[in-house]
Design goal:
Strand order of the largest sheet: 4-3-5-6-7
Number of domains: 3
CATH class of the largest domain: Alpha Beta
CATH superfamily of the largest domain: ANL, N-terminal domain
Structural class: alpha/beta
CATH architecture of the largest domain: 3-Layer(aba) Sandwich
Strand content: 25-35%
Number of strands: 27
Largest sheet: 5 strands, parallel
Radius of gyration: 24 Å
Helix content: 25-40%
């Protein structure tokens, strides 16, 4: 059992030195090479003045060097901050300033998008793929410089499991991203549970579909390292095309897959998946958003040899509950449970009266306690106090728990059922409405491919309900048809007043439907019309 994340690599490198650890863009690194190169990077960082706890930014597209950087930073006792390579320069600059990044590992293309003020604030900039003759700027170092440092040993840095390992920036309610602080213990609590639950083995071939700044990637990276398995990074040129992705799963012999449901839906609808071509695939894990039941039923029927698991948890806890899909129940389930708490994690729902719910059918906000819970948000004491709160249900010693903001219902079988975000509850005509329930009703129509429901402020009734719908190509859906479909499934006051059709819904960098941009677009249109 490891107590810091980099030990997972060191242990596997000693057992499987010549085995491929990571593969991407036609290049491979063995466990020995990954161990040696991450050792060299750690020494380089320390030589540049990096101290324990310093933040190191990683700003470049996925490649084998991604893992070298993550592990090299950890071996230096520092904290890595993975950055979305597709994000606007303003967002990247904000993050670099917000957490005080002192060294940025990037490439020449990405470095060019940053302004001089942002670059000047850095101690050093390490450029991947550049030789010393191509460099310009003070403190800019070539990746080839790693060869000057020891590869046979990591620096002697004292760390404990409670030290920070990485900071993941997620969208914030203020419009600025917030940095979720995760320790070695936070990550290892999840990784060790996964290792035992899903029996990850040295012969496994794991895919990494999620961006490295998204918490789903923690499973891919560290469970492959823990088992001595091989990790296949799915780069943007593969992820964009479902048929290419399906071929990738087949050709690489992927055995364990983990992604958001949207990626699986695209594979199902456009990837030409065939069970006989992916016989090696044994587990599909999904998380991050609700999986439309009609697509899950179809995918489970298509791949009868695969075990499916619904994993739930915000970035602040990684995964905290799980549910193994039961095929014989799928036909009758209206909603897929998020399940029960993972090992070494306790979850419970708290009612509006501040009491833990115990009876089936009751609803409340889900709370999480245990070693997987974040310390809070970097540099934001107020936000931390609001979300990482004292556990008032035991008074013998000080302990923190995380309030997820998600509403759940306790099922008859003891599994929790996700109802929606507390902040996605709206009022319309005096009724409390959960937008997710309307989305489920619309998705049950065979012509609807994907949908997002948003609230449009209205002075008279509080909010009007608008649905943005992407239909199947062969479908000729009309507003009246969908409203009639909803009328048979949800109350009249929940039927969308407005339905907009589009070819595809906007997505975030993590593959989820971008509801924030839909709301903002609607708001901008309203403002523009008012000014005419």
């Amino acid at each position: 059992m490891a107590y810091v994340l980099q030990q997972l690599l060191t242990n596997s490198a000693s057992r499987y030195p010549e085995k491929t650890a990571v593969s991407a863009r036609g290049r491979n690194l063995t466990y020995r090479e990954l161990e040696e190169k991450s050792n060299q990077l750690a020494h380089l960082l320390l030589q540049r003045g990096v101290r324990k706890g310093d933040r190191i930014g990683l700003f470049f597209p996925k490649c084998v060097e991604s893992l070298v950087c993550m592990l090299g930073v950890l071996k230096a006792g520092a904290v890595y901050v993975p950055l979305d390579p597709q994000a606007p320069a303003d967002r990247i600059s904000y993050i670099l300033r917000d957490c005080g990044v002192c060294v940025l590992v990037t490439n020449a293309e990405k470095r060019k998008v940053l302004d001089s003020e942002t670059l000047h604030a850095l101690n050093s900039c390490i450029l991947i793929g550049r030789s010393s003759g191509e460099l310009n700027g003070s403190g800019v170092l070539p990746w080839s410089m790693l060869a000057e440092f020891p590869s046979d040993r990591a620096p002697q840095v004292t760390l404990t499991e409670t030290d920070l390992a990485y900071i993941l920036y997620t969208s914030g309610s203020t419009g600025r991203p917030k940095g979720v602080m995760l320790s070695h213990q936070n990550a290892l609590t999840f990784v060790e549970w996964c290792s035992a639950k899903f029996k990850i083995r040295p012969e496994d071939q794991l895919s990494n579909h999620a961006p490295l700044h998204f918490d789903l990637s923690v499973f891919d990276v560290y469970n492959s390292l823990e088992a001595g398995a091989t990790l296949h990074l799915i780069t943007e040129d593969i992820a964009l095309f479902p048929s290419t992705l399906a071929s990738f799963i087949e050709s690489r012999g992927i055995t364990v897959w983990y992604s958001v449901p949207s990626a699986l839906t695209l594979l199902l609808l456009h990837g030409n998946l065939k069970a006989e071509k992916v016989q090696q695939l044994r587990i599909i894990l999904f998380a991050g958003e609700v999986f439309p039941m009609k697509y899950l039923r179809e995918l489970a029927g298509l791949l009868p040899h695969v075990d499916f698991y619904n994993l739930y948890g915000p970035t602040e806890t990684n995964v905290c509950t799980y549910y193994q899909v039961e095929r014989d129940l799928l036909a009758s389930q209206e909603k897929l449970p998020i399940g029960v708490g993972c090992e070494n994690t306790e979850v419970f729902a708290v009612s509006d009266k501040g009491e833990i719910i115990a009876n089936p059918g009751e609803t409340g906000e889900l709370y999480v306690r245990g070693p997987g819970v974040t310390y809070g948000y970097w540099g934001d004491v107020d936000k931390t106090k609001k979300m990482v709160v004292p556990n008032l249900f035991q008074r013998n010693f000080e302990e923190k728990m995380y309030r997820t903001g998600d509403l759940v219902q306790l099922g008859e079988d003891g599994n929790y059922i996700f109802l929606g975000r507390r902040d996605s509850m709206i009022k319309s005509r005096g009724y409390r409405i959960e937008l997710g329930e309307i989305e489920n009703a619309l998705l049950s129509h065979p012509g609807v491919r994907e949908v997002a429901v948003i609230a449009v402020p209205d002075d008279i009734i509080g909010n009007r309900i608008k649905a943005v719908v992407a239909a199947h190509a062969e479908s000729s859906l009309q507003t009246a048809e969908l409203q009639q479909h909803c009328a048979a499934r949800i109350p009249k006051y929940m039927i969308p007043d407005l339905i907009e059709f589009c070819e595809i819904l906007p997505k975030t960098s993590t593959g989820k439907i971008d509801r924030v941009s839909l709301v903002q677009r609607d708001l901008n249109a309203t403002i523009a019309s008012a000014q005419v």
